[in-house]
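Example record for the data management plan.
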Amino acid sequence: MKYISLTTAFTPLLLLITLLNSPNGISKELAITFDDSPRAAKGLLSGPERANKLVAALAKHQVKQVAFFSVSKHLNTEGITRLNTYSDAGHLIANHSHDHPDFNTSSLTQYINNFLQADKQLKQFSTFTKMYRFPYLREGNTPEKRDGMRATLDKFGYKNAYITLNTYDWYIENLFQAALAKGKEVNLERMKRFYVEVMIESIEYYDTLAIQYLNRSPKHVLLLHEMDISALFIGDLIDELRRRDWSIISPEQAYNDEISQMVTKKVLSYNPGRIGEIARDKGQKKQLWHKSLDETYLTEKFNKDVLLLKK
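Corresponding structural encoding:
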């Protein structure tokens, strides 16, 4: 695998030239991906309701293809039907392990077997594609584990399905479902605004970080999860992204960006995503996780903006 040097210095002049020579200031493209499908559906929506809403929203907003990174342990009858709903609509089904292990606490052999078990079970779907998303984004906390899994992906013809735009939408889902379970009134209009605002905060932060270190906006990959709030509000997020001059591209287009060939030499027990890796390789050690990925920040903002609670 080719290594791309990350030693080009960032200067305000180079950034200004990039901005001036790009349409609308700068070309901004992202692909949408959903982790953990078919994720447990025990809240507001049933599994079939979630799948149908997601597919309908993506079609309405003319998003032809997203990727669902799937956990094969969840392939009961309903789970298989749900993934077929996504696959039949033309969306990609990809590998997210058998049971979502933490690579930091698994041996390399255990982890590879888990990956291969998912590979075997997910091949039944017509749009299955050989992309692997590491659970928790953890790619190995020792050189041996990191390099061993890189070699395994190469051996079986897989792409590392890195992300560039990190979010904690899963935590927002937890706040949403917990409030409903406790009988609290959750106004969906306020919830929509909160969700879209936080997602945009994260997306804009990581794009700015990318421009700082790459002098351009790469083809981004957005990390979301297959959840109720995704089904409810993905259309609103897409509308806001387009209002801000973002274009939605397919995952396969996104993974053709040259940063897909970047290989960090560092061992990261906790991975902030590809843009965070690049920033870390360039010497940045802080603020690799934006405040929109902070649980305290999200809880306080949810209570204030959605539940209208005062401190």
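Summary line stored alongside the record: The radius of gyration is 19 Å.
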